[in-house]
Every structure is written in C-alpha cells, then in structure tokens.
Amino acid sequence: MNVGMTLPVMEPGLHRDLLLDWVARIEHGPFDFLAFGERIAFDNPDVLTLMAACAARTERVRLLTTVVVVPLHDPVLLAKQCATIDMLSDGRLALGVGIGGREEDYRAAGADLSRRANARLGEFVGTLRRVWAGEKVREGFLLPVGPPPVQPGGPPVLAGAMGPRAIRAAAEWADGVSGFSWGPSEAEIVEHFSLARSAWKEAGRDSEPRLGTAFWYALGDGARAQLQAHLRRYLNWMDPAEVNAALPATGFAGAPGELRDFLRRIEDLGADEVSLVPTSADPAEVDRAAELLG
C-alpha cells in the first residue's frame, strides 16, 4: 500500500517558505505521494497552480489531486493545465475528480450549478482524455490543444465518489476511487471499497479499481483538541450543531503506534493508497508521520 502526505492547504497562515518546507520533507521522506484538493470559497491556494509548483520542486514523489471539482472548470483548459503538470513532473500526476460538496464554491466561481451532477462527470472526463489524445474537441482552431501528457493516455483519473450511485457512474470512466473516511473507520472503508469492486464488475471492467482513501489525523498529546480546532474552521459550511456533534468521533487522534497499526489494517482491506490529512501546518507533523512509517 502506498502512503501519501497531504499538504496543509486548509490551514491559516500559509506562506511560500512554509509550503516549500513541507514539499521538501515529503519528497525526502518515506512517502509515496504528495496530495491535496480543491476548494474555492476559502483561503487555501489554488489546486492547479500549487500542484505545478510541486511538480517543479520534486523529482520522486507522485502527485495526487485528491479532488478537482471538474464542473468549476472548462474541460479543455483543465486538460491543458493537467497535461502541463504531467509534463513538469515527468509523468507523476494522478487526477482525483468530483462534483464537490459545497454549492458556495460554484457561486464563488460563477459556475452553473446544473453542471453539479455525477452523471455528467463521465462527459467531462471524456473531454479531458480526448484532448490528451490530441483530438480537436471543438472547432475554430488549427492545432490540437497541447502539450501532450507524458503518461500515455494522460494521467490516471480517480473518482472522488462516495455513494452507490456516484460509484456506479464512475465505474464507466474512472481508473479507481479517491475516497475519504470521516471516522476513520474500517467498516466505512470496507463498504466504500466493496461498492467500487462491485461497480467495476457490473460495468464489465477488465481491471480492478484502484482503491484509495484518506482521513484527518493528529498525533500525541492534545491530538483531539488539534483535530477539533481544525474541523471547526474547515467545516464552516455546515450547521454548527452538526459540526459539534461530529467532533468527538471524526478523524484519527492517538499515538504514532496506533496510527501505524491502523494503516496496516487498511492495507489488509486491500487499499492501494491512503492519504494522511494533517490538521496542523507545523512541519514537524511530516517528521512524526515519517518516523512511524519508517
């Protein structure tokens, strides 16, 4: 199982030196990939701009967008941006995509809310792949939209789908799933992986889905308080009463050895990859996680 570290992009007070410090520690640590996702109506960095910077500053780790909210983007421009990142990284990009869980991001981006439908994701992804294949998907220009991606056919595309309908739809076009466990709980992860395996089989796919999950975590003394402070800020679109009810059982809070054991159990469930999502911007978080991974 591959284990990746998520940049603390949803934490306050980010700046260039701090982010580059995190990127360097991940690159030189035991992590298999570096990850983060997209949000618009928040003070996080832009997902594609930052991923391009990470591509240029790393040589080894794979790069994963845990989710790009595809309906917020023009698919041809998005295909060009992702192919550029794939070129800069020499073929290390994987693209997690979804429709997003917040209508406020659509309003902030001036995007059409009618595009926020899992049934349309296959259409959008199909356009990405046609552009990556060098097809002219629109009229009125002479040359295909480049650059061509380094990876044949373009970066792997993973579905940030969680529910049965979304996963069944994703089985028609995705290379796998990029899930998230709020618990995190083994039962939740098992259910998600089982849904994906069944959907891929029902769709007549020749290969098994690539199975990924992620979860928030904090380690050591004060771990639960750290998690709760992060979630109160990050979950600002939810009803405060719902957030307060979720806080005691959301995210992993414990000792490094307990997290190591939990990762081993996730591996036994058949996970191909898991993303650790930190709840602090302190670069020491990377070192603590690196030590427990060995």
Description:
The structure is a single chain. The protein is α/β, with parallel strands linked by helices. The protein has one domain (2-293): Luciferase-like domain (TIM Barrel), CATH 3.20.20. Helices cover 43% and strands 16% of the residues. It is built from 11 helices and 9 strands. It has an 8-stranded parallel β-barrel, surrounded by 8 helices. Helix 2 links the parallel strand 2 (33-36) and strand 3 (62-69). It is globular.
Percent helix among the residues? 40-55%
Q: Which architecture would the CATH scheme give at its second level? A: Alpha-Beta Barrel
Q: Report the sheet with the most strands, covering strand number, pairing sense and barrel closure.
A: 8 strands, parallel, barrel
Strand percentage, roughly? 15-25%
Average pLDDT, rounded to a whole number, is 95
SSE pattern, N- to C-terminal:
EHEHEHEHHEHEHEHHEHEH
Total helical elements: 11
- The CATH superfamily label reads Luciferase-like domain
Q: Give the class-level CATH name.
A: Alpha Beta
Whole-Å distance between the termini?
Answer: 14 Å
| Secondary structure category | alpha/beta
What general form does the structure show? Answer: globular
Parts with pLDDT < 50 across at least 5 consecutive residues? none
In total, how many domains does the architecture comprise? 1
